[in-house]
Amino acid sequence: MESTGEFTVEHFSLVRLATWFARDRLLQRLSSMHFDFRGKEKRQIFLRIKEKAQKSGQPWRDLALKHYNETFVRRELRWDYQSWIREVESSQKISPSSAEPNGPLFSLLLPTFNTDPTLLRACIDSVLAQTYPRWQLCIADDASTDSAVRECLLEYQKRDERIKVIFREQNGHISAASNSALKLAEGEYIALLDHDDTLAPHALQRVCAEIGKNPDAQLIYSDEDKIDVAGERFDPHFKPNWNPDLLLSQNYICHLTVLRRELVNQVGGFRVGTEGSQDHDLLLRCMPYLDARNVVHIPEILYHWRAIEGSTAQSSSSKDYAAEAGLRAVGDYLQAAWSGATVEPGTAPNTYRVRWPVPNSEPLVSLLVPTRDGYDILKPCIDAILTRTDYRNFELLILDNQSRCENTLNYLREVADDPRVSVHRWDYPFNYSAINNFGATFARGEILGLINNDIEPINSDWLTEMVTHACRPEIGCVGAKLYYPNDTIQHGGVILGIGGVAGHSHKYFQRDDYGYFSRLHLVQNLSAVTGACLLLRKSVFEEVGGLDEENLAVAFNDVDLCLKVREAGYRNLWTPYAELYHHESVSRGADNTTAKRRRAQREAEYMRRRWGSLLDNDPAYNPNLTLVYEDFSLA
């Protein structure tokens, strides 16, 4: 518990473990979850702790248990952002650049209008302080009425020949001013800079280094934070890699944005009428030319967004016109690129919900529900699906794995009278992968749904929402937002690497929490989603060979499936608009025996062998965020 309160323990048991098994479990947890030992082999950890214990004169077990206990302490309590800046960011700094005569020229676009001269100077000084020298600062003043702004700009123009200034005669707002700055640009790449923000000194050098590794890069962006009037940094935004569906939900790219100038000119520069969301609009119009191969994300804080009175950095509601412009930008993109898709405001500020169309010929969906006994959870699940699902064109295949409970068997006979329901017997030991592969052979639908027998839909359009995404040709697996019965988050998507293999995003957050930068309220691409409620086209399921029966009988088979689908070239997706309750693992029980734990360890080790470093480098996450907890706290 995070605070003082009451709780109830309904069941408690102690299981005696052999010494060797307890030690193995301890070392496994340190390898999976301890910030000092993560990723190291268990024997290596054992020897390191033993050596340290000998030097300090304390028993090995006492020191090992101390480290073990540390994995249960929320690190964010002592690991705040200021500590992160001092201890982590300082190690990311790179040495000053040489002249690098062959590096690209960057044109920084800086529109100004009646800017506070103190903040304007800080902004320009951050450009002058760049360790990379090949830049030009293209400033377009949008007819400022404050003479101090003009004097400041003229002063800097005289100081450095790389600073170009144009004074517009009429105020045209930020899009027009940005286009004026764009006309001054001569560089291969343009970078977007707001008039009161600042760059990290090595920002352009880091971008240059990434372009050297990725010469075809069309878009480069970095992580960012905010800076207050006192100059203190806060609220870092550590972003995922290229995430097209998240970009339709919000402008997660924001700052620092660097684009190839040729591409910006090709799409017509900044669009007048999208003021407040002109950067988002520009990115959306560039999107047809962007993909994971030519978009580069730098997971470092290279941009400091000024949070002052009236800025969107300080309050998302301070510029309502920005939200309206963003809605218009997404709508115009959809109208140009996708027939039938529409957009509406999202459930979090400055976010958007895209509604994708269901094909005119509604595809049949085959929902596969494995079960064994469990009448008390199976009946509510099946009844809820049959009565709380607006999408009508589905069949429900109950895959019975050796049920013996008379109530369950009677219910299966009863519910099979519904023409949408069929019961198929799987008379072998439990193997989740094999049972669902077996069920898929009977499925008549174009779309398969993997559904646990302890799932209960909340909103009646849950299946419609998931089908609209599963029908999109570029999308593979589609996951839903799942809650525990107490209305806390059970599944907000899967994050690779947490706990060694994978964990659930935002687990235990409250139902209405926004989550990390509103991500609990946003449709987004994720590497994996849980098989407790997962849809994908049957053709994709068959293309990747279905679920792995041999190596992943119980755990991680859904993660493995998603990674195979991603490897085949599809984007996996999670939507918060399909909401269901999940009574997790009630039917098969917990891994509370030696045999079950050994099986779980074998499956985890297989995942590490099969997917290797991919598990520690989730493109939908960020390396600066924790792989111990499921809350997006700092690593």
Give a short synopsis of this structure.
The chain has 635 residues and is an alpha/beta fold. Strands 12, 13, 14, 15, 16, 17, 18, 21, 22 and 23 form a 10-stranded mixed beta sheet that branches. Strands 1, 2, 3, 4, 5, 6, 7, 8 and 9 form a 9-stranded mixed beta sheet that branches.
Number of helices: 19
Helix content: 25-40%
Assembly state of the chains shown: single chain
- Structural class given helices, strands, pairing? alpha/beta
For the biggest sheet, the summary is:
10 strands, mixed
The strand count comes to: 23
What value does the average pLDDT take? 91
Taking Cα atoms only, what radius of gyration do you get, to the nearest Å? 27 Å
Query: What is the general shape?
Result: globular
> Approximately what portion of the residues adopt beta-strand conformation?
15-25%
Termini separation: 21 Å
The parts where pLDDT drops under 50 for at least 5 residues are none
